[in-house]
Amino acid sequence: MKIGIDAGGTLIKVALVTDEGRTFKKYPAAEINQVIDMLNNEYAGEDVYLTGGKAEYIQEKLNFNATLSIEFDATFRGLSQLLKEADIDLDRYVYLNVGTGTSFHQATRESQKRVGGSGVGGGTLIGLSYLLTGIGDFDTIIERAKDGDRDIIDLKVHHIYNGRPSPIPGDLTASNFGHIINAQKNASIEDQLIAVIGLVAETVTAMAINLADAFKTKNMVFIGSTLLDNTVMTDIIYRYSELKNAEAYVVPDGEYSGALGAIS
Ligand code: ATP
Ligand code: MG
C-alpha cells in the first residue's frame, strides 16, 4: 500500500492506494497528532508520502521514514491524473486551489507555474460566516445558504442601472455586500451566508478569468475542499464564468490532488 498525505491548514487529506484501487479520507488539521499516532501504530513500514504546509511537522514525529514533496508539484501531478480520469483534456489552463487560502497556477500538459495567491478562500468562507451569523460549521453554512437570496445583500448592476440598458450584464455583481440600506433592513441568516459564499466565489473566479486571459486560454480548473458538495459556490462559479465566456471545470475528488500526487 502507498499512502499519500496532504496536510493543509484546515484539513489533512489522505489517499490510500493499493493494487485493487484507492480510497480517500480527510481529517481536521486540529487532529494532526491523532493522525500521526495512527500512522505510527497502523502504517509503520508502509510507503508514506507527505506534502502540504504541515508535512514537515508530521515527518518529524513519525517513527519511520516518509518521502516529502513540494506541495505545488504534488498537486499538479495529482490534478493531471484526475483530469485524465475525468476525460477532461486540456492543452493550456489555469487552476485555482481554493483551500484555506487560494493559490493560482498556469499549466500546460507538461508543467505548472504558481503565479499568485489570495487570502480569500475557504477560511474566509467559514470565518466571515461565523462572525456574521455565529455559524461556523461548513456543511451547515452550505445547507442554509441554499435558502438565501443574493439580491438582498449584494448590489447588482441592474440595481444601479434601474432597469435601463447596461453596458455589462445586469446580473453581474456591482458590489458584494453593497446593497447596504436594503441589507440592513431585510437580510436573514441565509441571505448573509449566501452573500459570503458569493464574495469568495466571485473573487476567485474574477482572478481566474484575468489569469486565464493573460495565459491565452479559456479553461479554468477549480480544486480544493472549499468546493466539496458546495453547489451554492460551484453554481456561482459556473454562471459567472459563462457570463465572461470562460470555461470552468470542477474536478471530481480535486481536493485530493495533493495527496494523490505526493505518491510518486
Ligand atoms: P491550504 O492548502 O490553504 O493549506 P487546506 O489544504 O487545508 O488549506 P482544503 O482542504 O483544500 O484546504 O480546503 C479547506 C476548506 O474546505 C475550509 O476552509 C472549508 O471552507 C472547506 N471545508 C470543506 N469541508 C470541510 C470540513 N469538513 N471541515 C472544515 N472545512 C471544510
Ligand atoms: Mg491545500
From TrEMBL:
Pfam families: Fumble. InterPro entries: ATPase_NBD, Type_II_PanK, Type_II_PanK_bac. This is Type II pantothenate kinase. It comes from the Bacteria. It is an enzyme of class 2 (transferase). The lineage of its organism: Bacteria, Bacillati, Bacillota, Bacilli, Bacillales. NCBIfam families: PRK13317.1. Signal peptide: none annotated. PANTHER family: 4'-PHOSPHOPANTETHEINE PHOSPHATASE, PANTOTHENATE KINASE. Its EC number is 2.7.1.33. GO terms for biological process: coenzyme A biosynthetic process. GO terms for cellular component: cytosol. One of its GO terms (molecular function) is ATP binding. Keywords: ATP-binding, Coenzyme A biosynthesis, Cytoplasm, Kinase, Nucleotide-binding, Transferase.
